[in-house]
Design a protein that fits this description.
- The complex is a heterodimer of chains A (about 325) and B (about 250).
- Chain A has about 325 residues and is of the alpha/beta class.
- Chain A is built from eight helices and 18 strands.
- Chain A is globular.
- A nine-stranded mixed beta sheet of chain B has the order 9-8-7-10-6-1-4-5-11, with helices on both faces.
- In chain B, helix 3 packs across helix 4.
- The mean pLDDT of chain B is about 95.
- The chains are: A alpha/beta (about 325), B alpha/beta (about 250).
- At the A-B interface, helix 2, helix 3, strand 7, strand 9 and strand 10 of A face helix 3, helix 4, strand 7, strand 8 and strand 9 of B.
- Strand 10 of chain A pairs antiparallel with strand 12 of chain B, so a sheet runs across the interface.
């Protein structure tokens, strides 16, 4: 009988990522609602903070270990997980929606022939059924879905579910050394970009648009982002113009983001851009056109020249910080 | 070598999307449709692969007669053959993947391109599902691709960087923006595409594992305050972010 919620954790450089703790929290809430057990599984080599998962509500973690598993491999990771799922038979599988989770989840769904809902922003029980809400059309609409197969996979959008510690409990970790790895797909190298934070994971995003006028002016945006501890984002127009890399693009053909604070500088707010960032908790906009659509969804707006206002924001923040 | 590219017909990204009366589909009145933007990168990569290694390209789309417009665009760009898997019913991602996998198998395609996601339902899962169903290798979110003989080296975008992945054929690649610059269809291509036949097939009907309950509008965000019109407003803005929103 399946009576387990399995949560798949992710590590990078030997550390469990924040989105995995968010997933643990969601998994343990579901388990306690329906009186199931929660189990977590993680694949990697040496991982520092596995026991910490206990703080978020999971008491058992299975760690599959091999030096070759330090970096992601679609083939190796899915083989290990499928074997584990087949032997432990969990009913609900929760996966953080990072680039790794989004790659892995559909393989597992297809192999197990079970329903998968990606990019969930809410999971609620309604009439004893687990209903997932997710954005469609890049957030122009939301939709409710349910999985009808016995096994159910939910992939969570990072940064939406909060990972608050609920106890000081340490998780029991069972380490299994694995061999017979299937390395038919293998990451041979990871190249980091210069920017420290990715928009998909950042809690604060400072984005620039065409109103920044030239690529070199983005140093203002970079400085402000650094002061705020946030990531640099960009509108499609500036990415298409080659001013900024595509990895920074926010919007319908870029990344859909949900940070706590989104600062839109010189961005007028095309429908595709608004779709990608409208679920941000607080939105600040600076634009010289008072009729720009961005002001329709901004919490705080300044109608004015970015080249006057952004340097003033940088100065003011420095002052606030030094106090 | 047979090269397949799976493409979708989606509302233009600039379209305002409204919910239909059944609450389970969108109101298509006045909505312009386009080739799914990510699929344009997939089509371009299929064409480049053929130019380099020879072979034949086939575009496959599942949907209604309207999808022919998108298939026609692929033909105009230079794709050799187009197949419409005609089905208008609601299918979940896995059911779509099964129908596409059946067709790719019958085509014996060794390399299959997808856009990394379709900008309507935004699931981003079908390419990897097809790979699994066919027992092919896969790399998702690809921004650079090198094929040498049987060997594939791909760069995929991840948070804060990229992974260099090695694998072998047969393979499914899902294309991310940045992989290439999609070409424009030439006038000659457009004329030739008009004459080409789009093959229609009825795909097998697979059971859905995911049920769509209803679509909703996101809570509308109230426009906030305009704090000022020059740099003198900055001090107040920072105060509000600190004390009212408590975000800095």
């Amino acid at each position: 009988m399946a009576n387990k919620v399995l949560v798949i954790l992710e590590q990078r450089n030997g550390k469990i990522k924040k989105s995995s703790f968010e997933a643990v929290k969601v998994a343990s809430e579901i388990s306690s609602r329906i009186n199931y057990e929660t189990e977590a599984v993680i694949i990697g080599n040496n991982i520092e903070n596995i026991e910490e998962t206990g703080n978020y509500g999971v008491s058992n973690v299975v760690h599959f270990r091999n030096p070759e598993l330090e970096n992601y491999s679609t083939s190796a990771y899915k083989k290990i997980l499928l074997e584990h799922i087949n032997s432990t038979n969990p009913e609900i599988i929760i996966i953080p929606g990072t680039s790794l989770g989004k790659d892995l989840a559909p393989h597992i769904s297809a192999k197990l022939d079970c329903g998968l809902i990606s990019d969930c922003i809410a999971l609620n029980y309604t009439n004893n059924e687990l209903i997932a809400t997710r954005p469609i059309f890049a957030g122009k609409l939301l939709a409710d879905f349910k999985v009808t197969s016995t096994k159910k996979i939910f992939v969570l959008r990072p940064n939406v579910f909060k990972a608050d510690k609920i106890s000081d409990m340490k998780a029991d970790v069972k380490t299994i050394d694995v061999d017979n790895l299937d390395l038919s797909t293998k990451v041979i190298e990871i190249k980091k970009t210069d920017t420290k934070l990715d928009v998909a994971e950042a809690d604060i995003i400072v984005s620039g648009g065409r109103g920044m006028k030239a690529p070199e002016n983005f140093k203002l945006i970079e400085e402000l982002a650094e002061l705020l501890g946030g990531a640099v984002g960009a509108s499609r127009a500036v990415v298409d113009a080659g001013w900024r890399p595509h990895s920074e693009q926010v919007g319908q053909t870029g990344k859909t983001v949900s940070p706590t604070l989104y600062v839109a500088l010189g961005i007028s707010g095309a429908i595709q851009h608004l779709a990608g960032m409208r679920s941000s908790k607080y939105i600040v906009a600076v634009n010289k056109d008072k009729d720009a659509p961005i002001f329709q969804i901004a919490d705080y707006g300044i109608v004015g020249d970015v080249f006057e206002i952004v340097p003033a924001m940088i100065e003011e923040l420095k002052k606030v910080k030094s106090n | 070598m047979k090269i397949a590219v799976c493409i979708n017909h989606v509302p233009d990204t600039a379209a305002k999307i409204n919910i239909g009366n059944d609450r389970k589909s969108i109101d298509t009145a006045g909505v312009a449709y386009v080739v799914n933007p990510y699929d344009e990168f997939a089509i371009e990569e299929a064409l480049k692969t053929k130019e380099k290694f020879g072979g034949e390209t086939v575009a496959i789309s599942l949907g209604s007669d309207a999808n022919k417009e998108t298939l026609r665009k692929a033909l105009a760009m230079g794709i050799d053959e187009a197949i419409l898997l005609k089905d208008e019913s609601y299918r979940d991602s896995l059911s779509v993947a099964k129908a596409l996998a059946d067709e790719i198998k019958s085509q014996n395609a060794e390399i299959v391109f997808f856009g990394k996601q379709s900008v309507d339902f935004d699931n981003g899962v079908i390419g990897q599902m097809v790979a699994e169903l066919l027992n092919y290798n896969s790399v998702s979110n690809v921004i650079k691709l090198i094929i040498e003989g049987n060997k594939i080296t791909a760069e995929r975008e991840i948070e804060g960087g990229k992974e260099i992945v090695e694998t072998t054929l047969p393979v499914v690649i899902t294309a991310q923006k940045g992989l290439n610059e999609p070409r424009y269809a030439s006038l000659k291509g457009i004329m030739a595409a008009k004459k080409k036949n789009i093959i229609e097939k009825i795909p097998a009907n697979y059971q859905n594992n995911v049920e769509l309950i209803e679509m909703k509008k996101p809570a509308s965000k109230q426009p906030g305050r305009i704090i000022g019109t020059d740099a003198s407003a900055v001090q107040e803005l920072i105060r509000l972010l600190k004390e009212e929103a408590k975000v800095i």
